[in-house]
Amino acid sequence: MNTAVTTSSQDSNVSNETLVPVEYTYNDRFINRELSILDFHLRVLEQAVDPLHPLLERMNFLLIFSRNMDEFFEIRVAGVMEQLALGNESRSPDGLTPKQVLDKISETTHAAIERQYRILNEEIFTQLRKEDICFLRRGELTPAQSQWVKKYFQEQVAPVLTPISLDPAHPFPRLVNKSLNFIVTLEGKDAFGRQIDLAVVPAPRSLPRVVRLPDELTGGKEHHVMLSAIIHEHVSDLFPGMTATGCYQFRVTRNADLALNEDVEDLAIALKGELNSRRFGRAVRLEVTHNCPKHIYDYLLDEFDLEEEQLYKVDGPVNLARLLSNFKRPHLRYDSHTPVIPKVLKKAENVFSAMKKQDILLHHPFESFSPVINLLREAARDPQVLAIKQTLYRSGPDSEIVQVLAEAARNGKEVTAVIELRARFDEESNIAVANVLQEAGAVVVYGIVGYKTHAKMILVVRRENNKLVRYVHLGTGNYHAGNARIYTDYGLMTTQKDLCEDVHRIFQELTGMGKMAKLKKLLHAPFTLHTQLIAFIDEEIAHAKAGKPAQIIVKVNALTEVQLINKLYEASQAGVQVDLIIRSICCLRPGLPGLSENIRVRSIVGRFLEHTRVYYFGNDGNSRLYCSSADWMDRNLFNRVEVCFPVEEPMLKKHIYQQGLLNYMKDNQGSWLLNGDGTWERVKLKEGETPHNAQHVLLELFK
After folding, report:
1. What is the set of active-site residues?
2. Quick one: which of 564, 568, 521, 544 has its CA closest to 620?
3. Structure confidence at residue 376 (pLDDT)
4. Which CATH number fits domain 99-332: 3.40.190.10, 3.30.1840.10, 3.30.70.20, 3.30.1390.10?
5. What pTM was estimated for this model as a whole?
């Protein structure tokens, strides 16, 4: 790996001509994708020790890290293990084989998970105790509390437990992905006179993982007992006449990636079949409690066909993702934030008149998501509205949006929903959404087989003075009110003719399967977006070579696409200043002499999940600014239907440039910089420097 000096353009006064040319091999130019996303998860973990976050929020980051790691093993690690099993020795762009990637992952994740539990035990739990929030261990209960727990076990837990002895008649059970289980060592004989040494007890998913003790036993304090501790304490009761000599928690993570044939007859039916298999995919990780004896975990590893490097010993609950953090302690949380409604919408009699007056830009979660729901609600009830078309990626059958669309269909509007059934881990919910809408009389289209529909679009057609007028919403994030409170996203509400016509054409393309839509303003994956981005970068290169100012700023969730990375290297070499604000995966190496010294990469991790996708090109003073649903990844650019829309209205463009880009480049609180060797470094406040937290600035701005 080339770790040559990492001079940024600001620190170096050396002209390109005087630099000794450095030759970079193809593999030297890229960072491994899997290791890059793992680095993002580590940046999330670091939030758990960041004093800038209140205590319960820090705990929440710890739980988010757990959920992220679960998904990382289910999807990313499972994918690399599959490549290895198939004997695939091909190397990723960075030159690593599947085996080398797995070894590096194993080394990093073992250290990270050890650190996670150390933070939990030594910092979070210790500080929670000072606030009278305790997770009591078995030895800490008073006699009265122990009595209550025993009663709770007998009445609430034992009736739903199924102990399974392990003997020739009872082979090892099929255990569901990520379920909590106990393996119990036994002495004595059962009712049938059999000598049973081992049994497995799956913890029921229907029970809460954390049980609050009644106020009268705690003096009103937040004292809790883990379900695992309750089962552990009374496990012998499940095996009458026998003695449990040991009881150890374990949990297996399985491959949860869905594989669908491209030529399926009915996507919904095919998916339902696949969803069941996800629960019992190939094992990819085994977690056990740290005191589990070697012969027990060896036995489990053997059962799940795993090696020792896939074993994770944890000092605490093995399924942290289900730990509670919603305690009523406002002072240990972020100050509450109420998203604001733009003035133009407050003053207008309805959404339609506001949109006719001007384009409206929404910046979530600082501004409310309710205008989007109101657009649909008014459209559903307005006698002048004829049709509503919308793409849905992650929404849920109970969401207000789905309910409003169903109401519109029942009111006789022509409702078309393009639902992406394969939004990962939301497949079941999306099938349910499709059913709700179909029952209401809406036309439901499942996108295009082979291409996920990831574009975020709403089109409302309204009759006004015998003419049809279109109203459009385009966004960077999903139509999901919950996400809009915790993800940063942009939405544009517009009646611009060209944009509305383009959206109409894309809906036609998605439902009618005709030829590729010819568009005036929108860039459209998998057709024009990639080519156009390359052309925009080429224009900046030409400006730089002509001695004009040249600048590119890109804010996306991930950058992996090799052609775009190489084109950005070319831009850097031509003298274009490139700033990349990338939340998670970045395969580009910045700051390498002779290759990328004019590229800076930063990542912002904070209270809200950064999700806006903005592309900015200086264009010799006549800047171009686009918002999009697409990251700079192969899948977004070539295998998904994505939409990228220009923001041309000067005021709105200025807002996005200043608040959504420059503001983030000034951040010195939640910002991390990427080095040329692939390591990330937290930005530290320099002496005399004013603290600048981009998300806090926006919270203050939108009060």
Report:
1. 454
2. 544
3. 97
4. 3.30.1840.10
5. 0.91
